[in-house]
Amino acid sequence: MARVLARATVDAVQAVGGYAGGVYLRSGTPGLLRMAVLTGLPGPLFRPWWRMHANRPYPVAEAYRSGQAVHLPDAETSMQRFPQLMAGLPFPFASLYEPVNAGPERFGVLLVLCEATPGVPVGAAVRERMRAAAHDLARALAALGADGVPVFWDGDPVSAPAPAAAAGARQAVDRLAQALISVDRQGRIGFVNSAALRLLAADPAELRGEVLWEALPWLGHPAYEDHFRAVFMASEPVHFPARRGGPASGDWLSVGLYPAPDGVTVTVGASEQPAYAPGSVARPGAGPGSPGFGSPADRASALYRPVALAIALTEAVTARQVSAVVTDELLPAFGGRQLAIYLLNERHLHLAWETGFPQGFLSRFDGVALDVRLPGVETLTSGRPMFFESMEHLAAAYPGIPLDADVGARAFLPLIASGRPVGSCILGFDSPRGFSPEERTALTALAGLIAQALERAQRYDNEAALARGLQAALLPHRLPVLDHVVTVGRYLPGTVGMEVGGDWYDVLDAGGGRLALVIGDVQGHGVAAAATMGQLRSAVRAFALSGNTPEEVMRGTNRLLIDLDPGQFASCCYILLDPVTGRARAVRAGHPQPVLRHPDGRTEVLDLAGGVVLGIDPEATYPVTELTLPSGAVLVLYTDGLVETPGADIDEGVERLRATLAGASPAPLTETADRLVSEAGNIADRPDDIALLLATRTDAAHGEDA
Questions:
Q1: What CATH code is carried by the domain that includes residue 61?
Q2: I need a surface site. Which of 21, 465, 477, 502 has the fewest CB within 10 A?
Q3: What are phi and psi of 156, to 5 degrees?
C-alpha cells in the first residue's frame, strides 16, 4: 500500500506543478487521520502535523469531514479560513486538499503544496487534475480493500523521493568562490562544491546523501529550525547568521537558503559576529536560541516552543484568552516577568492585558495616539521590534519617559498580522540582559503568531455578535400551538471556537390540520452558515405552505441551494404529521435518523429512507417513508452535535441518546428536551452546535412553548 500512496502523491505533485505533497489516511482510532506518505518536505520538521483529528479546524480535516475539496491559493485566504494552520506555519504557500473517497467510503485526503498565487484563485485545470489524482488513488485503495488489505495507517509517514532534478553544471559551480550546497526536498545533501568543502573543512563522503542538519549539527539547533521550515513551505529565500559549533561557540557564518520545486540551494559565507545591540552591556539571556541554551533537555524544550505556543493560541478565542496563553507560554520561555499587550482601535492603543507591572503604572499610556513618541507606539508604526538591554538604554533613547523600575530590560514587539497593525507587546525583565540574534528572530516570529491570534479574536467578536443576532432572528421565537400535539425546540451552540453554526429547527402549520416538523444542519460555522440556514428555512417554509408533498419540498429546497451556490451543503429531515391520526410522511436528506420513544418507554432509531445532502446533486430524489406516531410517543429530531463527541463513534452517541430518552419522563416535554440537551452540553470541547425538536401526540388540545 505504501508504494501505491507514494506513487499517487508524486504523480499529483507533478500534475499540478507543486513542490511537495502527502496523503492522510484514516487510522485505527476513530476520527483520527495520520499522514501516511510525505514527499518534498523533511518529515521530522513537520512532526506536529503527522496526526490530525477529523473534527479539528484544519483544511485536511474539513476536506475529510465534508467530502469537498479545499483550495487555498495564498496565505491571506488560508488565514481567513484556517487561522490555526497559519498560526503554526506562517509562511506564504498555496495548498490543495482533495478527499479520497470511493462512493460512501472515505479513505483520507490527498494534499499538494504549491507556490502561492496572491489574489488569483486556483485554476479549473489544476482543480480537475487534483480530482483525477484523488479519484485514481481512491480506486486503487478500494481495490486493495477488496483484496483484503486493510486501508488504514497507524505508523509514521513514509518519505517518497521527489522526482530527480536535471543535472547541474557541476564544473561551473565548482569554480565559484561562494560555498554552495544543494539539498533535495527531504533535506538530503546531493552536491557540495569545492568552496563549501574548504570552508566547512568537511569530507565529501561525510556530507553527500546525509540530512543537512545532521551532517552539520550546528545547523540543527532549534534557533535555526524555523528558517528551514519557512524555506521548505514557501518560495522566498531566507538568510540568517549561524555559529559553526552551535550558538554558544565557534565562528559566525552567513547562511542563505534558496528554495525551488526540486530542492534548496544553501549558501554559506564568512560573517562578522553580530552585535546584540549598540553599546551592549549585558550577555544574552537564557531564552531559547541564546548562547548557553544548549543542553539536550533545553534543546528538546525549545524545539517545540513555537509550535506549543501556536497550538495553545489556536484554542484561545478572546483577546483575554490569547493574552493568558502568552503569559503562560512566552514569559517563562524567555525568563520574562512583565507583560503588557496593547490593541489598536481607531488610531489609539488601548491596554488589553498586563501582568507584573506596578498597579496603575500603565494606565497613563492607555489610549495613546499613534503620533506620541513612545516605544510601544513606535514599534508598531515602524513595524520594527525594539530591544533595550537596560533601563538606562531605554531612558537614554526616550528622555523623560516614566519608568517602572531602575533595573531591568525591555523588549517592544509590533503585533502585525497579514500586513495589518493589530497592537504592540511589551516584555519586561528584572535584570539587564542582551538579546541574541536568535532570540530577536524568535521573539519577532512569535509576535506574528500572537498578532494573528489577536486579529482572529477581534474578528471572532465581531462575526460572532453578527451571527448570534442573525441566528436569533432566524430561529423560531415561538412554535405554533395546535390541538393534539405538543412540540418543543432547543438550540445549543458548540463550545469549541464558540462560533454560531447553521443548525435549525422549525414547526409549520401546513394547513388541513397537518403539522410539518423540520430539522436541518448547514455545513460550517459563522455568519455564512447562519445566513444559508436562514435561506433554507425560508425555502422549506415556502415550499411547505404552497401545498407541496414532502418529496417536492425537499427536491425544491435542494435545487434552490444549488442555484444559490453558497459553497455549502446541508442535511435536513422533514416530517408531515397528521396530529389526529398520527400518520406521518417523512423525507430525509443525509440527516441523522430520528429516534422514537414509545409510550411504554421502549426506544428505537427509525429507519427512514433518504437521499444525498442538499446542495450536491440537482437531480437527487428523496423517497418518502410512511410511519405512525402513537399517542403518548415522543419523536426526537436532532442534529449530529447531540450525538457526536471527539474520538467516539457516532453510534455510541445514538445509544446514549436512546438510553437517556428511555429513562426520561415523557411529560412534560420541556423537561425531556432540557435533559437531552443538558447531558450533551456537559461534554467538554464539543465542536458542533445542537438543534433539537421533540413532538408528541396528546389526547387533549394543548401545547407548550419552545
A1: 3.30.450.40
A2: 477
A3: -80, 160
Q: How many residues does the chain have?
A: 706
Closest CA relative to residue 522, chosen from 514, 531, 513: 531
Grid cell locating 603: 426506544
Q: How far apart are CA 464 and CA 457, in angstroms?
A: 10
* CA dihedral for 18, 22, 26, 29, sign (positive or negative): negative
Q: Do 92 and 18 share a structural domain?
A: yes
State the pLDDT confidence band at 168, using cuts at 50, 70 and 90.
very low
Instruction: Give domain status of residue 705, yes or no.
Output: no
Query: Does residue 496 surpass a pLDDT of 60?
Result: no
Q: Do 566 and 680 share a structural domain?
A: yes
- CATH classification at residue 623: 3.60.40.10
Residue 273, class by beta-carbon neighbours within 10 Å (0-12 exposed, 13-18 middle, 19+ buried)?
exposed
**Cα–Cα distance list, 56 to 85, 151, 407, 424 (Å):** 10, 22, 45, 30
Whether 340 contacts 351, CB under 8 Å = yes
Question: Structurally, how many domains does the chain consist of?
Answer: 4
Contact, 42 vs 186, CB < 8 A?
yes
Residues with Cβ < 8 Å from 369, sequence gap 6 or more?
A: 347, 348, 377
Query: Does the residue 136 lie in any domain?
Result: yes
Which residues span the domain enclosing 185?
Answer: 173-270
Q: Are 570 and 68 in contact (CB under 8 A)?
A: no
Position with higher pLDDT, 52 vs 527: 52
CA angle 150-156-159, nearest 5°?
100
Are 398 and 374 within 8 A, CB to CB? yes
Residue 630 has pLDDT above 50, yes or no: yes
pLDDT value of residue 249: 56
CA–CA distances in Å: residue 146 to residues 141, 150, 291: 9, 9, 57
Domain endpoint, select from 437, 466, 495: 466
CB 635 within 8 A of CB 517: yes
Q: Does residue 54 contact residue 64 with C-beta atoms inside 8 Å?
A: yes
Distance CA 76, CA 671 (A): 47
Residue 241: inside a domain: yes
**CA atoms of 311 and 328, how far apart (whole Å):** 13
In a domain? residue 288? no
Most confident residue range from 109-123, 303-317, 427-441, 517-531: 109-123
H or E element at residue 414: strand 409-417
